[in-house]
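Quick one: structure for this chain?
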Amino acid sequence: MPQDYLKRILDARIYDLAVETPLDPMPLISSRIENQVLLKREDLQPVFSFKVRGAYNKLIHLSDEQKAIGVIAASAGNHAQGLALAAKHLNIKATIVMPQTTPAIKVDAVRRRGAEVVLMGDAFDEASAHARKLVIETGMVYIPPFDDPDVIAGQGTVAMELLRQHPADIDAVFIPVGGGGLCAGMVAYIKTVRPEIKVFAVEAEDSACLKAAMEAGERVTLPHVGIFADGVAVAQIGEETFRVMKDLIDGVVTANTDEMCAAIKDIFEDTRSIAEPAGALSLAGLKKYANQHNLQGKTLVAIDSGANTNFDRLRYISERTEIGEKREAVLAVTIPEVAGSYKRFCQVLGKRSITEFNYRYSNNKDAHIFVGIQVSPENGDREDIIHTLQEADYAVVDMTDNGMAKNHIRHMVGGHGVNVKDEIIYRFEFPERPGALLTFLTKLAGRWNISMFHYRNHGSAFGRVLVGMQVQQSEKLALEKLLDELHFNYWEETDNQAYQLFLE
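Got it. Here's what it folds into:
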């Protein structure tokens, strides 16, 4: 089956628009994980993403009649930019349907390249449905972002360059997956030319549609898709891409938000460039796989697939990096409410660096402190700290992997409610658009008293809110019926230890 794509890839005439990108060594991360790590720099394409390869390859295969009608596509951003540039180069009219949550930097870039932009829906699948509706209405040619042989072949040229640039031994290549176009093209080429090289697909943990399909033995649709890594936020793997990948890839690795943030920092430190979350995804998977399998002395390749991210997202990325790199432990510790307790606590920690310390007086017996401590990712340092504190008779709760604690509690510590009865806590996520917070409040306010509210703009596609409401048990079903009608993702957090220790 991979032979089906070999000729397509070799015949892809993309280089009058796309460029051959370098394969950069990464000395710092290589030294740290004791493997030779190489980075294929697709962020250096004219649209800062590999997507221009597949888009251009598809357009040059259209008939003159199809080119005259014009093209349309749905995209979260990178395919849109690649198609807009390719269409402009070939003097073809292009319309792009993009989710309303797409970072502004991508929307503006598409418009600058002459394409018409239509914003629709909160995720790729809604935008895709609208684009296909417009195809019926206008007769324009739909250009898929990944699920098309010509697109897949265009993306496969990344592998052709890679193997030519590094003819020596390669142990494994890690490739980011959203809809699967890049991975399908690359694995088809690699397994035909160098079948001994292992190929791993890397997905965001909260949009792992390929992993779900592999486990089910068929394509499935995810009920929810996380869009921190908006470039791979796809609910269902492509039909053709799944056909190609399912028997060729050597495995699927998933990475979470913190691990992607840490990989963004790694890329910056080695190359002085800033990858978007999806662009750093494969490096996050590479590091995770190497650690889990104790790899040493191997040659490992990651694909930096893009660099299109909003600047204001860097604040959030920077915040999460230390935890993603496992260099910070976030703990809730109970200490006696007596003079000198903080000093003794610091003495127990010794010379360890405290990165954060939050505390507010609550009663004259116990003090609950929220503390960040710098740790070494090697040798179980976080566990050693917790053991040391417990040996000193401190009650400790590890909050390092508690999403509510990292997103909200660390910024709210100390606000215990006084005489707040029947309080229920909910955490919400809703699309971050102009007026979205006002819409949220308008729908929620009125019937029940809001006893706590925390909102913080993280520079990402979804806003995050923590809300406390005074609701009698007899009215809880009515409340949750209303919440279901809002069509926002929400979770009850009343039993979350972070809330119980610092806010209840």
